[in-house]
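hey so i finally got around to running both of the ones u sent me last week. sorry it took forever, my laptop kept dying halfway thru and i had to restart like 3 times lol. anyway pasting them below in the order u listed, first the sequence line then the structure token line for each. didnt double check formatting much so if smth looks off just lmk and ill redo it

first one:
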Amino acid sequence: MPLMVRIVLRRPVYGAGVSHDPVDPVDPDVDVQWERAGRGTSPPAAPLGQGRLLTAVSVGGAAGASARYAVSVLAPPPSSWDGTVFHGWPVVNLAINVSGCAAIGVLMVLALHRWPHRPLLRPLLGTGFLGGFTTFSTYAVDVERLLGHGQALQALGYLVATPVAAVAAAALAIGATRAFVAGHVGPRGGTG
């Protein structure tokens, strides 16, 4: 059986009726209890029909990729960044990736703490829409293009800045959304 990789978030406690388990799976197909029990037991059945899940991811992905394309068409051309610290950088792709990661941070907190019983929300908006909207494969091509044009310093800066800014944006969005949810919304969506 392949090794399962999971990303976890610490769950703040909002009130009675909320699990005090400090670890929540981000992937709805991950069963933490089964993982803790060891590999000797059979894995749990998938909670959703594969067709519904595939449809949610596909529809979300198509919408996210379309949104990314629209942003890239409507954004200022690369020449508008000449003479700035971003000269030579694919600023639009940087903005898409950073904003998409921030949106993923917001979505994960809301999906876990505001709408936990909507099983297609994360596949539709997280894996689908935001997965299609962000463009980390283009990020790699952008670094290669900068290197090919002899812009090694710009390539190195972009290579480092993109993941650092994306992770920072997600972390800040998670923290801000948790603070907002804790102050304004109870564990089941009521006012707190």
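and the second one:
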Amino acid sequence: MLYRNTGKRRDPPHTRDFTSHSLASIVVAASTEDDPNRPSTSAIDAPASGRPGGQRSQQSSARLLAIVSSLVAILAALSIPFLPVQQEAATLSWPQNGTLTDVEAPLVSYAPLSLDADVPCQEIGALTDTGGVLLSTAPPASPDAGRYGLLARVTAGDNPHLQVTVRDRILLSEPVSALTNCTLEIRIDNTRASVGLSDRAPTIHDGDLRPQLVGIFTDLDGSAPSGLRVDVELDSRFSSSPTVIKLVAMAVAILATLLALISLHRLDATDGRSTRRFLPARWWTFSGLDALVIGTLLLWHFIGATTADDGYQFTMARASEHAGYMANYFRWFGV
């Protein structure tokens, strides 16, 4: 019998199986020795049915708790912007303390939400000789009082007139001699402005003509007459506090998030690996650079508070001790 040499070595089947199995065992054993946290080969090869029932139950409960708590946290967090708040309504009324004294009330929003004013016509006669400002939302000496604000004034001369200007628009001009037993009525909001006298039809201008409000000013003096009033509704949309349901939603979102993180940690611990550090160990060591940063911040805490930029809030707080309220010091000087 002749044999042909093909140049390829053929090992018996039992020899190949033994060799491949031995090499695999050596590789797995070596990798296990290199990584002490790696589960043993017996744990890898063991079927899932061989795990204790308590461990499988623990994994299932932790997985379900993580899913449910994370969904609750997401829904609670998304609902927070849509939940109601308690808004503090603020209004300005004039005259105050029964006298016709100017009131300074500059608004950060510049214009109020609405303005209602009633002025008896007999008060207009007090200004016919010299003329003057009957009612204004800006200082009378301001050159742009009629351009940006509400200005009701009486012109002097042989034929004095009552003129009401709102945002550079003359909405009423009547001779003083025709104003008897009436009331000047002014109604302004974000949809329209109405200016007129109680005994005739008013002039209505559609659109937003809300005047800039720096305060209530007049050239009248003495005690406040009956029927004279100015009511201003201020824009206090940001002066709010959360309601009970909003606070509950915040607490639920935080607690549910913490519960989800704890559940995920329990799931990670079931693979037999050691728990990883949340922060590197070197981050907990205090170095000279850390001391430099902290020292610089402490030094700037005292230096920066006296500057015009970083000391903005600090100066406002100091001005509030004398003004009686928290004011914008660099704009209104706490007055």
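quick thing i noticed on the 2nd:
Helices lie at 13-34, 41-45, 53-79, 145-148, 244-268, 288-303, 312-323, 329-332.
anyway thats it, ttyl
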